[in-house]
Write a structure and sequence with these properties.
By secondary structure, the protein is an alpha/beta fold. The protein folds into 2 domains: 235 residues, Rossmann fold, CATH 3.40.50.2000; 153 residues, Glycogen Phosphorylase B (Rossmann fold, 3-Layer(aba) Sandwich). It contains 15 helices and 14 strands. Strands 3-4-2-1-5-6-7-8 form an 8-stranded mixed β-sheet, with helices on both faces. A 6-stranded parallel β-sheet has the order 11-10-9-12-13-14, with helices on both faces. Strand 1, helix 1 and strand 2 form a beta-alpha-beta unit. The protein is globular and about 65 Å long. The relative contact order is 0.12.
Length: 414
């Protein structure tokens, strides 16, 4: 089987959950199942300088992983007008002659690349994984209004509330285009049942949408932090720092705990690339005003076990629905209970009172109360840890993908 993977970035440049999962899955299929293929990661000048002579660039030592320089992207329409640049991929696609083309995000690639690839590889089966809600929501795929309120799904009136300067026709055309482009995919995968239901509610074909969980590389669980006094009060945040992920909410909750005299320690792990000056100024001011918290910056996958060994709880304070955060699976792999919002994919992954706790969303007072309960309840941490179930491995998920690819190919031949 020959496979072409498309992702909107490479984990060596931007180690987000989608990028990490897609590259790990590609390598697992290549190394364990003898699948041939190419992993193409779209980038812009923000990630890597464009080099003269070609839109394709190598990265690292892997000959089957490449960067494709794609600027000029329209985030509202998910459009890539640089069709001349996209056409430079045709010789590579023709030489590979992929059986399956798996798109892991439409960002940077744009809907135009899908049409081009269909012409370049007419016999290939097309798979799309909806790692978030970008095809449904022009507001950065968050289904979160510009005012910070949760949105139940796209509608003309709701979308114009976030984009008051755009004519209604833009939203109608965007929705029609998304359905038209993706309706011919052989399979559409979502990492959570919540996401599947959101796409179906928006009019996407239920019979083609399948839940496919994410998986992790196997690593030994980090040991639990020694706590001779029995107090489990070390809180860890892991992930990109931006307003959607709730780092500011967590800092505000920490200040609430300080005011109430609750001893604790919050450590923020993650980068803050591409954030606005206003957000960074607020983040720095909030950190300065929160003595019990500190930010230690970005980390690598290899560093994660050592970092998570120093915390008792992993907090995921996202203010949007989320889909299936890898950080929750990573916390469970290392046997740390999770405190997160009781909504969307987070609530689906974390069982309240079983292997973690649900907290009110975008509510520092409510989050503080939940953390206080976690820290001060005798035996709670031990009970939650005992009920944590190991997340799927990348090996298990790769086998499921391989079966799905084979089914798609057999359906055509039949």
């Amino acid at each position: 089987m020959k496979l072409l993977f498309l992702c909107h970035n490479h984990p060596s440049l931007q180690p987000g959950g989608t990028e990490v999962l897609a590259r790990n899955l590609f390598r697992e299929l290549r190394d364990r199942h003898q699948v041939e293929g190419v992993f193409l990661a779209a980038v812009t000048g923000s990630h890597r300088e464009r080099r003269p002579g070609t839109m394709l660039q190598g990265i690292g030592d892997a000959a089957d992983e490449m960067l494709v320089w794609l600027g000029h992207f329209d985030r509202f329409f998910l459009a890539q007008p640089d069709t001349y640049g996209l056409a430079s991929l045709l010789p590579l696609v023709a030489e590979l002659a992929p059986d399956v083309i798996h798109l892991h995000h439409a960002l940077l690639w744009g809907v135009e690349s899908i049409d081009l690839l269909r012409r370049a590889a007419p016999r290939a089966r097309f798979i799309f994984t909806a790692h978030d809600f970008f095809p449904l929501c022009p507001q950065e795929g968050q289904m979160l209004t510009t005012a910070g309120r949760l949105c139940g799904g796209p509608s003309l009136d709701a979308c114009q509330g976030c984009f008051p300067g755009r004519p209604g026709a833009d939203f109608v055309m965007r929705e029609l285009q998304m359905r038209d482009v993706f309706r011919d995919f052989d399979r559409i995968l979502t990492p959570s049942a919540f996401a599947r239901n959101r796409y179906i509610a928006a009019g996407w074909p239920a019979e083609r949408i399948e839940v496919m969980p994410n998986g992790l590389l196997p690593v030994p669980p980090a040991p639990h932090r020694p706590a001779p006094d029995g107090r489990r009060d070390r809180i860890g945040f892991f992930g990109h720092l931006n307003r959607f992920k709730g780092s500011l909410v967590l800092l505000a909750a920490s200040r609430q705990l300080e005011a109430a005299g609750v001893a604790h320690r919050v450590t923020l792990h993650g980068g803050a690339a591409y954030q606005s000056e206003a957000f960074m100024e607020t983040l720095k001011a909030d950190l300065a005003a929160t003595p019990s918290a500190n930010w230690v910056g970005p980390y690598t996958a290899a560093e994660l076990p050592g970092l998570i060994a120093k915390v008792d709880w992993v907090v995921v304070p996202s203010i949007w629905w989320e889909n299936a955060p890898l950080v929750i699976q990573e916390a469970f792999l290392h046997r740390r209970p999770v405190i997160c919002g009781g909504i969307g994919g987070m609530a689906e992954m974390v069982r309240d009172g079983v292997d973690g706790l649900h907290a009110p969303v975008n509510d520092p007072v409510g989050l503080a109360q939940c953390i206080r309960n976690a820290v001060e309840s005798d035996g709670l941490w031990e009970r939650l840890v005992a009920r944590i179930e190991a997340p799927p491995t990348i090996a298990e998920v790769a086998k499921r993908h391989l079966t799905l690819y084979q089914d798609a190919l057999e359906a055509v031949s039949a």
